[in-house]
Give the backbone structure.
Amino acid sequence: MKFEGVYTPAVTPFCSDGEIDYTAFAAILESLIEAKVHGIVIGGSTGEYYAQSAQERLNLAAYAKEVIGTRLALIVGTGSTRTEDSVEYAKAAKEIGADAILVSSPPYALPTEKENAIHALTIDRAANLPIMLYNYPARMGVVMGEEYFARVGKSRNVVAIKESSGDMANVHRLARKFPHIGLSCGWDDQALEFFAWGAKSWVCAGSNFLPTEHLALYDACVLQKNFDKGRAIMSAMLPLMDFLECGKFVQSIKHGCELNGLKVGSVRAPLRPLNSEEKRTLQTVVASVKRTVAQITSGANDA
C-alpha cells in the first residue's frame, strides 16, 4: 500500500448519555467519502481512543469497515501501553479487512529505541499488514530515532510514518536516510515543508470539517507542484492551525464538525468542551479560511 493523499483521523461522536453514536459516526464517514479524502484513520487520538474501552475500539473499527467497505482506505490505530493489547488491536484490524495499521510508541512506558522497535515489530508479526508509524513524542514521551528506524525499517510492511515530532531535523533525517519509509505530515503548520521534502500524504484532523481546504493544499503542493499557490493556501490556513494548538485540540475539531452540521456530541472526560468565546472565535477563523482558500483555488489569487 502506498500512502498518498489526505487521510482523516475521524472523530468519534457520542450521544448525550456518553455512548458512541453509531448513526452519527456513519454520517461522518459518508461526509468524508463524499469530500474525496483518500483514507480514514480510526483509533487515533483525534478519535479519543484513550477514553474508550477495548471493546468500544474494536466495535468502532469493525463498524467503520462495514460503512466504508472498499470505497476508501481504512487505517486502524493500535496504540496502547501494553504490547499485548496493541497486538490484539492489530489482529482485529486484520480480521475486519483493514488496509493498514497505525503503530505508535507505547505511552508512559518510556521504552528505549530497541525496546520500542521490538514493540513495533511484534505488532507487525501479529498482523502482517502495511504499517504507518506514528512518531509523536509530546504524547508518548519518547522519540523514534535512527536506531529505531534502522530496526523497524527492515520490515517490508513499514511503508510510511506520520511524523509529529515538530522537529524538522527529523523530517530531514527520514527523507535522507530512510527514503523507503514514506513521509506523512503529522504536524499541520509544517505541511508545506513536509511536501517540499517529498511527503506524499497528510494525516490531518482538520480535514474532519475542512476537507476541501486541506485537499487544496495537498493538490497544490504534491500534484500541481505549485508551491507559490501552496504558500498562499498555507498562509490562509495558519490561523486555524494556531487555534487548534491552543490546548483544546479534539474539542476544536469536534466543534468544527458541528459548524458543518455534523452531529458529534461532546468530548469524553477528562476533556471538556469549548466555551462560548472559543466557539465564536473558531467560527470566525473557519469562515475566513473557507473564504480565502476558495478565492485562491478559483484562480483569483493564483501565483
The beta strands are 5-9, 39-42, 73-77, 100-104, 131-135, 158-163, 182-185, 201-203.
